[in-house]
Inverse folding.
C-alpha cells in the first residue's frame, strides 16, 4: 500500500500547477462558498454586446448527465468537456473506477497506472487527499472550472504525456483548466474549498487537461 500512496502523491503533484491560489477564507453553509477564486467580469468586453457565453453555466446530476455538480463558463469549456471534469473528480471522491475509466483517455490511464489497478489508484489518491489535505473522510459536493490555463507550457506538458502513452493519437482540441472542488467532511454540515486547503499547505491549484480525440473529450492528467 505504501507504494500506491507514493504513486498517488506523485500523480496528485502532476495535477498541481505553479500559480498562486487566490483563495478567500473558507465559508460554510453556502452552496458556492469558495468554489470560484475570481468571478470578476468587469474586465470583460463583448464587442457585440452579448455576454451570454461569459455567464456561469451549471450542470447538476438531477438535470444533466453528470455525477457531480459542475460550474463553468462557455468561454472555457463545452458541456461535454465539463462533464468529463465532473466524472474525473467524482471518481476520486467516490473511489469509483468506472468513472475514472470513462473520463480518462484509455492509453493515458494505462500509462499513468503503470501496472496498478484503477481501484488501487483511486483508493490511494483518496487516502492521500484525506490524510494530507483534509484530515477526515470526505466527499466532493461540486466542482468548478475556474479558469482556462491553456498555454504553450501547459500544452507541452500534456502533449509529452500523450506522446509517450499513445504516440499515434492526434487530438483536434486541447484545453487545460484550473479546477476547484467543494467538499464535505463526512458527518459534518457545510462545504469547504479544496483550493483553500491547498493554499494553506503551500500547494498550488488543481489543473487538468481535456483533449478531444476522434470527436470525444477525454481527461489527460
Amino acid at each position: 500500500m505504501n507504494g500506491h500512496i507514493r504513486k498517488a502523491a506523485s500523480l496528485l503533484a502532476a495535477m498541481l500547477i505553479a500559480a498562486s491560489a487566490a483563495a478567500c477564507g473558507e465559508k460554510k453553509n453556502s452552496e458556492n462558498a469558495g468554489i470560484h477564486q475570481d468571478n470578476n467580469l468587469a474586465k470583460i468586453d463583448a464587442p457585440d454586446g452579448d455576454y451570454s457565453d461569459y455567464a456561469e453555466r451549471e450542470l447538476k446530476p438531477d438535470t444533466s448527465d453528470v455525477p457531480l455538480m459542475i460550474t463553468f463558463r462557455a468561454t472555457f469549456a463545452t458541456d461535454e468537456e465539463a462533464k468529463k471534469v465532473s466524472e474525473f473528480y467524482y471518481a476520486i471522491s467516490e473511489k469509483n473506477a468506472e468513472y475514472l475509466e470513462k473520463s480518462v483517455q484509455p492509453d493515458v490511464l494505462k500509462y499513468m497506472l503503470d501496472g496498478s489497478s484503477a481501484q488501487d489508484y483511486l483508493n490511494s489518491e483518496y487516502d492521500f487527499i484525506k490524510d494530507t489535505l483534509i484530515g477526515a473522510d470526505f466527499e466532493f459536493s461540486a466542482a468548478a472550472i475556474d479558469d482556462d490555463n491553456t498555454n504553450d507550457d501547459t500544452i507541452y506538458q500534456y502533449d509529452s504525456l500523450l506522446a509517450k502513452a499513445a504516440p499515434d493519437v492526434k487530438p483536434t482540441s486541447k484545453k487545460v483548466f484550473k479546477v476547484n472542488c467543494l467538499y464535505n467532511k463526512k458527518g459534518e454540515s457545510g462545504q469547504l474549498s479544496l483550493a483553500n486547503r491547498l493554499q494553506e499547505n503551500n500547494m498550488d491549484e488543481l489543473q487538468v487537461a481535456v483533449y478531444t480525440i476522434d470527436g470525444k473529450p477525454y481527461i489527460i492528467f
Observations:
- Confidence is low (pLDDT under 50) at residues 1-10, 13-34, 37-43.
- The helical segments are 2-14, 79-94, 97-103, 106-113, 118-134, 152-165, 194-200.
